[in-house]
Amino acid sequence: MNKITKIDIITRPSMIEDLKEALNEIGITGMTFTNVLGCGLQKGKTEFYRGTEYAIDLLPKSRVEIVVCEVPVEKVVETAKRVLRTGEVGDGKIFIYPVENVIKIRTGEEGVAAL
């Protein structure tokens, strides 16, 4: 059985369209997008609403989940880094996990065939 890997990319919501297009170009057709909230080095920001100062500790981010076996993980990671890197705090993170198995519910297929 081929090695199956899950890649989670967390980045700015404004970068999602560029990332989606770049991933399509390298052969990634299936992805899951989620709007999430998070904090890291940015530590949020302070804003004013009707003259009152308040802190926004959790910033909006987007999470892209991809499961690959045919396209090399390194190619996906390099593409994401090329598209998403601005050099500023908040560019995001990439997490890579091994996947034990995939099962397509409709047909019962398992492994690579289920992707």
Summarize this structure as a short list of keywords or feature phrases.
115 residues, alpha+beta, 4-stranded antiparallel β-sheet, two-stranded antiparallel ribbon, 2 helices, 6 strands, 19% helix
Query: Which structural class do the helices and strands define?
Result: alpha+beta
Mean pLDDT: 90
Counting DSSP E segments of at least 2 residues, the number of strands comes to 6
As a percent range, the share of helical residues equals 10-25%
Order of helices and strands: EHEEEEHE
* Shape estimate: elongated
List the total number of helices: 2
Spatial order of strands in the largest sheet: 2-5-1-6
Q: Terminal Cα separation, in Å?
A: 13 Å
Q: Supply Rg.
A: 17 Å
Give unreliable regions as ranges: none
- Beta-strand fraction estimate: 35-45%
Strand count, sense and barrel status of the largest sheet are:
4 strands, antiparallel
List the helices and strands and how they pair.
Layout: E1 4-11, H1 16-25, E2 32-38, E3 45-49, E4 52-56, E5 59-68, H2 73-84, E6 93-99
Antiparallel strand pairs: 1-5, 1-6, 2-5, 3-4
Describe the protein's architecture and organization:
The structure is a single chain. The longest helix has 12 residues, at 73-84. By secondary structure, the protein is an alpha+beta fold. Strands 2-5-1-6 form a four-stranded antiparallel sheet, covered by helices on one side. Strands 3-4 form a two-stranded antiparallel ribbon. It has two helices and six strands; from the N terminus they run E-H-E-E-E-E-H-E. The model has no long low-confidence stretch (mean pLDDT 90).
